[in-house]
Specification:
Layout: E1 6-11, E2 18-23, E3 26-32, H1 34-37, H2 47-57, E4 64-69, H3 73-86, H4 90-104, H5 109-117, E5 123-125, H6 128-137, E6 144-150, E7 157-165, E8 168-176, H7 181-191, H8 200-206, H9 215-221, E9 223-225, E10 231-233, H10 249-254, H11 268-296, E11 300-304, H12 311-320, E12 325-328, H13 335-349, H14 373-382, E13 388-389, H15 395-404, E14 409-412, E15 426-430, H16 437-446, E16 456-459, H17 463-466, E17 478-481, E18 517-523, H18 529-542, E19 546-551, H19 563-572, E20 577-580, E21 583-586, H20 599-602
Parallel strand pairs: 1-4, 4-5, 6-11, 11-12, 14-20, 16-18
Antiparallel strand pairs: 1-2, 2-3, 6-7, 7-8, 9-10, 13-21, 14-15, 15-19, 16-19, 17-18, 20-21
Length: 606
């Protein structure tokens, strides 16, 4: 047996920096830098994530065959320079502000990578959307599939499609900057008072409270949509070409006033704007997918890029296009580019064959750090934290019983998730049957806007009994309607906006959004056996196979990574219990901690 081939993939310097390590083509580890630095969407070189990946494999940088970077900086620099010259003089002023960063960092990536790794390594670069395409197709369970990538912008490309077969990817067509579906959606994210590259999922969650009153205005003035899904933006309404601001005064006049102030009150107009741009986004994505299916004749679709995190649009692709199966990269944004470039080098550059896994090659996206029983016990005892030690066979049973009693439980088990979703390793769990739980979690645990919905985890074999879904949704990237027989029949007729929250819509009201949808995670024993067993225990106790699963963090912070971070989040919020491995912590037994301030005093809005 020959020596193993290790390939390290890196994404950095825009947002959500990350690292991924392959050993002979198999994913060993992957993690985002934010989880280690505690800076949300950290864009710096992923020093800590790289260190973790190498430690997980038990190697050093000298053992790496290749390091891949997820985009080509010189092409991106070319785009920035051309854009600045085309929009001079304003664009040149913005370019001069970027120059120190580029001259001091991004044009010298080979040297920076070798310096950070402390070794001479062979560095290869992949185009941004090639990385996205590779991250979508290569881990998928498909021998062949159509591929669609959509985001704000890579080097030039903003949208692309192609075909994957075996170990080959062929990208056939693209739409280039400045025409971008991601930037269009982000313009409305900004206009509705949310942070760009962070608040887009809030806009998606806000949309069902509104009506698509502005959709025709968007189609008439902002975007020209063709039958094949290709599009062009009317750049007269946007300012991202020549400045750091998404929109201009003309945009504001078109929609009746200035942007909503961050943290300001939400109005019906904001909700209607969110619904309108969501409808237009879905329309474009469905048209693209139908066209790509006609060109490829494939029954399988792979998606990546930040826009692929829009789970409402993804569900429409599955429901309204001829594609029968869909795989969405769980780290669809820039973090997943680290995985994509590593796999691209293994399969395309080295020509290694590919044998698709029966489910997929992502291992449930549980690719981050885990902490041993001994490490967790050592932390608890060093901090004099009272705990109850459970036999391993009691972890699922006790947790399920607490959730069934209406308790909110922090759940810290096994390897941390890669990507933006908590999938049953760094999660906060609660009872989806409690009509007050959605409000309680938003106000007292997550410390976030009250309109935000929560996602259900459901046993995979029971999902069709509660939701209108065929197949699986393991990565929480599809929505599905709650089945009619599980709804209450209550009406919100006459109610507007956030008043719709007062209506109990189903047997699982805490995870039923105001349009009767849910962004669900189907849980299989194969992906996460302990989490699956806990859900089975909850079903045995209650007859219901559905619980709330929300990420283990408060607003403005990344998901927790370490036992210490989990404990701090537990103490700073109104969670009732925390279980880390087999150690159960009861909030009532916790002594006061002067060194841990309540989260309301320290969190930063995202």
């Amino acid at each position: 047996m020959g020596q193993a081939t290790y390939i390290l993939g890196i994404s950095a310097f825009y947002h959500d920096s990350a690292a991924c390590l392959l050993r002979d083509g198999e994913i060993v580890a992957a993690a985002q830098e934010e989880r280690f630095t505690r800076k949300k969407h950290d864009s710096r070189f992923p020093t800590h994530a790289v260190r973790y990946c190498l430690q997980e494999a038990g190697i050093t940088a000298k053992d790496l065959a290749f390091v891949g970077f997820y985009e080509k900086p010189l092409i991106k620099f070319d785009r920035l320079l051309e854009t600045a010259l085309a929009t001079a003089p304003r664009g040149l002023l913005a370019f001069y502000r970027w120059m120190p960063l580029w001259l001091g960092q991004r044009l010298w990536l080979r040297q920076i990578i070798e310096k950070e790794l402390g070794a001479e390594v062979e560095v290869r670069f992949c185009e941004h959307h090639e990385s996205h395409a590779a991250s979508a197709f290569y881990p998928s369970p498909f021998e062949e599939a159509a591929i669609i990538t959509l985001d704000a912008v890579g080097e030039w490309e903003t949208t692309g499609w192609g075909i994957g077969r075996g170990n080959q990817i062929e990208l056939r067509a693209e739409i280039d900057f400045p025409h971008s579906l991601g930037l269009l959606y982000s313009a409305f994210t900004f206009y509705c008072g949310f942070k760009v590259n962070s608040g887009e999922y809030k806009l998606m969650g806000l949309a069902p409270y509104g009506e698509p009153k502005y959709a025709d205005r968007i189609r008439e003035h902002l975007i020209d949509i063709r039958a094949d899904g290709s599009f062009r933006l009317n750049l007269k309404y946007f300012d991202y070409l020549a400045a750091d601001r998404m929109i201009n005064r003309r945009f504001e006049r078109l929609f009746g006033g200035p942007p909503r102030a961050p943290e300001g009150p939400l109005t019906q107009r904001d909700m209607d704007l969110a619904r309108s741009i969501q409808e237009v986004l879905e329309e474009v994505m469905v048209k693209i997918a139908r066209y790509v299916h006609a060109q490829t004749k494939s029954e399988n679709l792979c998606l990546a890029g930040g826009v692929a995190l829009n789970c409402v649009a993804n569900a429409r692709l599955l429901a309204e296009t001829p594609f029968k199966r869909i795989f969405i990269q769980p780290a669809a944004g820039d973090a997943g580019g680290a995985l994509g470039v590593a796999m691209f080098l293994w399969h395309r550059y080295l020509g290694q064959p590919r044998s698709p896994a029966r489910r997929d090659a992502m291992k449930g996206a549980l690719l981050g750090p885990a902490y041993t029983d001994g490490q967790i016990r050592a932390f608890l005892e060093a901090e004099a934290i009272p705990y109850e030690e459970l036999p391993p066979e009691d972890i699922a049973r006790r947790t399920a019983a607490l959730v069934a009693q209406g308790k909110v439980v922090g759940w810290f088990q096994g390897r941390m998730e890669f990507g933006p979703r908590a999938l049953g390793s760094r999660s906060i769990l609660a009872d989806a049957r409690d009509p007050q739980m959605q409000s309680l979690l938003n106000q007292k645990i997550k410390l976030r806007e009250g309109f935000r919905p929560f996602a259900p985890s459901v046993l995979v074999e029971r999902a069709p009994e509660y939701f209108e879904i065929q197949g699986e949704s393991p990565y929480m990237l599809l929505t599905a309607p709650v089945r009619l027989e599980k709804r209450t029949g209550a009406s919100d007729a006459g109610l507007q906006g956030l008043d719709k929250l007062r209506v109990r819509r189903s047997e699982i009201p805490a995870v039923t959004h105001v349009d009767f949808s849910a962004r669900l995670q189907t849980v299989s024993r194969e992906d996460n056996s302990l989490y699956y067993d806990m859900l089975r225990e909850f079903e045995r106790l209650t007859g219901c196979p559905v619980i709330i699963n929300t990420s283990f963090n408060v607003r403005g912070e990344p998901i927790v990574c370490t036992p210490e971070e989990a404990f701090q989040c537990f103490m700073r919020t109104d969670m009732d219990y925390l279980i880390m491995d087999r150690y159960l912590l009861d909030k009532r037994r916790m002594p006061a901690r002067a060194d841990i301030a309540p989260a309301r005093e320290v969190f930063a809005p995202d």
